[in-house]
Amino acid sequence: MEPIEQSEVQKQETLTSESTEFLVENVNFQQQRIANVLTTNSLILAFIGTTAGTFLAGPKVSSYLYVASLCSLALGLVTAAVALWPRITPMSGSVIARPEKPEANLFLQPARILKKGRELSEAQHGTQQFLERLSESIVLDAEKTRHAEVIQFRRSCIRAQLICILVGLIFLIFALLTRLFMI
């Protein structure tokens, strides 16, 4: 009967580990995506900035559209900076999870994990209790760091960033058209 219990505990541990890894990978992927869009936005802004003299010397409508394009792209840069701002607080080394039971926080605490493991290894079903406490600590840490909320916030920032780029490019196209046809 003991091997069955261990296999279920191992399954629970694997699921907890996989869900935590998924959240971390998702956050890292979003950061990479934001950085890529930020680079693209910066390049567009740099290229457009070099043509300032052409647009500002032309018709006023063209100048206004050009400035609106620059402002929209600059807003996209600000959105990217807000999205990349660190929002996940590292929980390792903290005792925030359960102040009344500081030993319950085992996530990324090797010394505590070893100590609890040694204490519980001699008790009957001690391994199962230890794994349950470790799993609870991981879940509490994931809740405290708010990975899911950060993912949602960054997703909305990515959308805002892309909208700013599109609006900036639309303004630039109209600025080009008015520059060409209103001379």
- Flag low-confidence runs: 92-100
Q: Kindly report how far apart the N and C termini lie.
A: 87 Å
The number of distinct structural domains comes to 2
Note the total helix count.
6
Q: Which range best describes the helical content: under 10%, 10-25%, 25-40%, 40-55%, 55-70% or over 70%?
A: over 70%
What is the beta-strand fraction?
under 5%
Number of strands: 0
How big is the Rg? 26 Å
How does the major sheet shape up?
none
On the 0 to 100 scale, the average pLDDT is 76
Q: What structural class results from the helix and strand content?
A: mainly alpha
H and E order: HHHHHH
Shape: rod-shaped
Your description of this structure?
- 79% of the residues lie in helices and 0% in strands.
- 21% of the residues are buried.
- With 183 residues, the protein is mainly α.
Write the layout of secondary structure elements.
Elements (H helix, E strand, L loop, with lengths): L1 H48 L2 H5 L3 H25 L25 H12 L4 H20 L1 H35 L2
Helix pairs in contact: 1-3, 1-5, 1-6, 3-6, 4-5
In short:
This protein is an all-alpha fold and 183 residues long. It has helices spanning 2-49, 52-56, 60-84, 110-121, 126-145, 147-181.
Q: What structural keywords apply?
A:
183 residues; mainly alpha; 2 domains; 0% strand; rod-shaped
